[in-house]
UniProtKB/TrEMBL annotation:
It comes from the Bacteria. This is Putative epimerase/dehydratase WbiG. Gene3D superfamilies: NAD(P)-binding Rossmann-like Domain. Residues 5-232 form the NAD-dependent epimerase/dehydratase domain. The lineage of its organism: Bacteria, Pseudomonadati, Pseudomonadota, Betaproteobacteria, Burkholderiales. InterPro entries: Epimerase_deHydtase (IPR001509), Lipid_A_modif_metabolic_enz (IPR050177), NAD(P)-bd_dom_sf (IPR036291).
């Protein structure tokens, strides 16, 4: 058996899919979590309490040596952040915590560290052209800033230590078990609520959780990935209106979408102090994925339609 793969955030939305795929491959998996999970079968579970991986190097079990790390755990983006200093809170987990984990895992034998960053490390919109890996980053919220700073800190540590760093920047991730805005959208569509989504031409890159797990595992194992930064998506970007209509069809729900102009939505957002939420809805955010397709010859195993079908089937069976 090859050296173990450590997955941080193993019991999260993406982590569970990554762990399942690794086990199906026959890999030895160490699941690094903050709380024990009774259903993590086939995983060597490591419960590490506390924030920011504090003291992890001294607490690393000698028997838990690993060859590679897929780092998913993070302080995630929050629309209503209650922290006194949000940027400081994000930095403690997403920057300093990530670097602590990288150093400790390298000391435990890891040669490859795959960091799951975010499109938000680059920005919230594409300004008319799909974003590429070498575009000048311009994050505009504390979460995005922390992800970019983590990327930079890891790359510097990789040069210093010889640890192979791979950075993966996904956009919105969806699939069975999805939460937040995507789940709220499905709630509204399934309930037949009229939504102002009938005339939004903006295209938004997304990635199905199964596709993300597939590419993360390749990035953890393929020699060609070392030192690279990759955008990853389903490679087929829907408009907001197309997404809403496809979801309605998959959920067997009526497509009740009002053709409200984007300018009206933007005005309504100003009046209701929800400008950020509206901009996230009506602004285009596409990623160029040609680099990973060329370098790793990677192609998503699931189409967007297949991903949405699986997501809708999960929703219908659980709600």
């Amino acid at each position: 058996m090859s050296a173990a793969v450590l997955v941080s955030g193993a019991n999260g939305f993406v982590g569970r899919t990554v762990v399942k795929a690794l086990i199906e491959r026959g890999d030895d998996v160490i699941g690094l979590v903050r709380r024990p999970q009774s259903d993590m079968l086939g995983v060597r579970e490591w419960v590490l309490e506390g924030d920011g991986f504090a003291g992890i190097e001294d607490r690393w079990p000698p028997s838990y040596r690993c060859g590679s790390v897929i780092h998913l755990a993070a302080r995630v983006h929050m629309m209503q952040d209650t922290a006194t200093d949000p940027l400081a809170a994000y930095r403690e987990t997403n920057v300093r915590g990530t670097l602590r984990l990288a150093k400790a895992s390298h000391a435990a034998g890891a040669q490859r560290f795959v960091f799951v960053s975010s499109v938000k490390a680059v920005g919230n919109s594409d300004h008319g052209r799909p974003l590429r890996e070498f575009d000048q980053p311009a994050p505009n919220d504390p979460y995005g800033v922390s992800k970019l700073e983590a990327e930079q800190a890891l790359l510097a540590y990789g040069v210093e230590s010889g640890l192979e760093i791979v950075i993966v920047r996904p956009p919105l991730v969806y699939g069975p078990g999805v939460r937040a805005n995507f789940l709220r959208l499905m709630h509204g569509i399934a309930a037949g609520v009229p939504l102002p989504l009938g005339a939004i031409p903006a295209r938004r890159s997304m990635i199905f959780v199964g596709n993300l797990a597939h590419v993360l595992i390749q990035c953890a194992t393929d020699p060609r990935a070392a030192g690279r930064t990759f955008n990853v998506t389903d490679t087929h970007d829907l408009t907001v209106t197309e997404l809403a209509r496809m979801l309605a069809a998959k959920l067997n729900a009526p497509a009740r979408f009002l053709a409200v102009p984007a300018s009206w939505l933007r005005f309504a957002g100003t009046l209701t102090h929800k400008t950020e939420q509206v901009e996230r809805l009506i602004s285009s955010l596409q990623l160029d994925t040609s680099l990973i397709c060329e370098v790793l010859n990677w192609h998503p195993p699931y189409s967007t339609e297949e991903g949405l079908s699986l997501t809708a089937a999960w929703y219908r069976s659980t709600h």
